[in-house]
Amino acid sequence: MSANPALVQISNGELWPAPFPSEVFVLRREGVQCELHGVQTKIKGWQARGALYLSNIRLVFVASKTDESGLVAFDFPLVYIRNDSLNQPIFGCNNLAGQVWPAVEGGGPAGSLPPHDFRVYFKEGGIGTFYPLYYTLADRAKQAFAAAEGRNRADPNPPTFVAGLVSHAFVDPADPSTIYLAERQPVGEEQRLPEAPRYAANYGEDEVYESMEPGAAGARQGPGQLRT
Q: Which regions span the lipid bilayer (predicted)?
């Protein structure tokens, strides 16, 4: 569950990530640009415009059109995102930058594969609706990940919690995100995937990967840290 996750077409013709069991989508945000590094393309990177989807377990970017890279969508499991920071430049658009571990064999914190660097630019409108919801869900997921012992872990963002979170969410008029209630999901139950997401075999183990690139050992940014 990283490159090209399963997609389904909903009633209005839009492509959506196929939901896992117990997955609840919180919002959809159009007008974003995703930059991703270290993926298997000719230039080992990907840049595309499209839509961003937030659920209780992941972020998913879906490109508005296909290109020669072979990538159409990319999965960002919330528990595998690290060093994420919100950047709010004086000149330029808000963007969310960080790293995400590949959720494949050899990936994950204790694997040999490096994380992917990513940056998501919000080209149209503000982030007052999106970011608080993202930060809350991602922070809870990563706290549960850090406290987990092996595979004995509880769901940090159960549907009941998400329902309460969404019902009390602040709606920023400048943020064009569309919010979805738990009882009014855009994807039909018959389109759900039959199995829960699979993480790397070392899910829950201590982080051992360290980048060998010069200057990579600097201070890490927390998930809520702002930059300008």
A: none
| Cα→Cα distances 189→9, 90, 164, 182, 186, Å | 13, 43, 21, 12, 9
% of residues, the chain, pLDDT over 70? 81
Nearest residue to 24 via CA among 191, 152, 194, 187:
187
Residue spans of the domains in the chain: they are 7-200
Closest CA to 157 of 60, 25, 61, 28: 25
Strands (E), the chain: 7-9, 15-17, 25-37, 45-55, 58-63, 73-77, 81-87, 95-100, 116-122, 178-179, 226-227
Which residues, 6+ apart, have CB-to-CB distance to 225 below 8 Å? 85, 86
CATH 1.20.1560.10 fits 7-200, yes or no: no
- Nearest-5° angle of CA 18, CA 110, CA 21? 20
Residue 64, pLDDT > 60, answer yes
Pairing state of beta strands 178-179 and 116-122?
Answer: unpaired
Predicted confidence band at 152 (pLDDT cuts at 50, 70, 90)?
A: very low
Cβ 2 vs Cβ 102: under 8 Å: yes
Residues 6+ apart with CB under 8 A from 101: 77, 80, 82, 107, 108, 109, 111, 113, 115, 116, 200
pLDDT at 39: 79
